[in-house]
Structure prediction request, 329 residues.
Amino acid sequence: MEGFLPPFWCVFWFAVSLPFVAYGCYRLDRLVREERETLPLLAVAGAFVFVLSSLKLPSVVTGSSSHPTGTGLSAILFGPFLTSVIGLIVLLFQALLLAHGGLSTLGANVFSMGIAGPFVAYGIYRCGKAIRLNTFVTIFVAAAMADLVTYLVTSLQLALAFPAQSGGIVGAFVGFALIFAVTQVPLAIVEGVIIALTFKYIIQSRPDILVRLDVLSQEQVTKIREAFK
Amino acid sequence: MRRYTLEIITVIVILVFTGLFINENAQIAASTQTGNTPWGGTDDRAAQAIQATGYEPWMNPVWQPPGSEIATLLFCLQASIGSLVIGYFFGYYRGKQSRD
Prediction:
């Protein structure tokens, strides 16, 4: 979508994304220096975005194809700010080597995939944890929504730049959401299930890091590991 | 929750997804409609919708993979690098765990 967003909106979304990414870099720096045991997990979370966003999956609802985002895992583990840095790296890779996304639209894409989606996922996960919802159900919903919200925000970004002649921004939003978000629904479900399963393996191999990152309490870890015996 | 509940759910979801795809694909193949490319990318469709309003993109990609085969190769490389990292660290954790 290189060049498809008018210059004003390109600059606008760069400006909006910048503080998030800057704070994310600061958090990343602190994590690298102070919590070195968590770094392999950060690599896994980043690699997850790498893999899932490279897959173009067919969606049965609309007969077209789209990419999952994979950002839910990293948002739940490391929070939305660090995820925005991961999103930036992946999007830069795709814009430079694959002519996918684009440099002019990078700010807008970082906002939708690296900031908006992960923020919603993080929010859902924290709420689910607070009201003691089943951990895996919470992760499924959070990861699926990270995917879906990314494309809803993309639709909104395009609608703001290209309001419909009849119906204005709302009309244009519905039009773009029909292209993007509806396609995304089945992909989001698959993504949510896969991330929930991956989470099980993380709990089984390094629960101590999850407790340290305050993703799960020790009590939750004990309960979940008991359940899978 | 039983030991393999999540694995079973994942397999079922993927099977349903695949089944729906095969079904939908057969319907697309049966219909004679020639408008959109079957399973075309949503980004291309949005681009078409925008260009239909008369808007022309003001910038072109700095580099484009020469041909769809090369693009597929690069996407595969991206996925395999990611998978390598995931596999390596899960193996590392698991190996460490069994030694302790």
